[in-house]
Structure formats: structure tokens, C-alpha cells
Design brief:
This is Histidine triad nucleotide-binding protein. Pfam families: HIT. InterPro entries: Histidine_triad_HIT, HIT-like, HIT-like_sf. The chain has a single domain, classed as 2-Layer Sandwich (HIT family, subunit A), CATH 3.30.428. It is globular and about 35 Å long. The termini are far apart. By secondary structure, the protein is an alpha+beta fold. It has 3 helices and 5 strands; from the N terminus they run H-E-E-E-H-H-E-E.
């Protein structure tokens, strides 16, 4: 769907066409649980307006990027992980693991997460 005018999976979720476990929503953002959770808490924060990735969002609408980050904090608060710590991750394009080309932040926490990235090579 990259570069396509077709609705993304996330637009279909936001529109209610595909069910999701919604954690929080407001005028500009929508947050729901990832069905392939990588931590006890794994919530996706999606801007309602589609941008391909976080770089495009930052260039096109810095205020909306700020809204996404504020919603990530709100999710951490609602999930009870604000004080213990949480991670916010944006995967940008294929090599970073982005599979849905509608920018989204992963909010992860609820347990020790350790380091991340490519595993160490011996």
C-alpha cells in the first residue's frame, strides 16, 4: 500500500471497520493494543491523518507529531507504566521493520525491556 490512495489497515481500524482494543483516542490520535505484543504493554499510537513515516510526519505536521508523543505519555499513564518506565519506538521504512505505511508509535513497557536492536555478533 506504500504510496497508494487505498486505506491503510490503521485507517480501517480507526474507522471501526476492523475491531481493535482501544486504549485511548482524541481528535488527532488513536491508540490501541498491538495484536502481536512484544511486551506486557504494547500499544500503537496512530495519528488520524495518514503520513507514511515519522520523518514525513515531522516535516509535514510537527504539531501532530507532538500530539502522537503526548498520546504515548497518556497511554503510559493509563497503563500504569508512567513511573516505572516505557519505550516509544517508530519504525521507519522496510529495513527498520515498518510493515504498515501509516506512521505509528509503539508504546512498550510493563516489564524490564533491556536493550534492543540487532543482536550482538560474536
Amino acid at each position: 500500500m506504500s504510496g497508494s490512495e487505498a486505506e491503510t489497515l490503521f485507517e480501517r481500524i480507526i474507522g471501526g471497520e476492523i475491531p481493535a482494543d482501544v486504549v485511548y483516542q482524541d481528535e488527532t490520535t488513536f491508540a490501541f493494543r498491538d495484536i502481536r505484543a512484544q511486551a506486557r504493554v504494547h500499544v500503537l499510537v496512530v495519528p488520524r491523518k495518514r503520513y507514511r513515516n515519522v520523518a514525513e510526519l515531522a516535516a509535514g505536521d510537527p504539531q501532530l507529531l507532538s500530539d502522537v508523543i503526548a498520546t504515548a505519555r497518556k497511554v503510559a499513564e493509563l497503563e500504569g507504566i508512567l513511573e516505572s518506565g516505557y519505550r516509544v519506538v517508530f519504525n521507519t521504512d522496510e529495513d527498520a521493520g515498518q510493515t504498515v505505511f501509516h506512521v505509528h508509535a509503539h508504546v512498550l513497557g510493563g516489564e524490564p525491556l533491556g536493550l534492543f536492536g540487532a543482536p550482538e555478533q560474536d
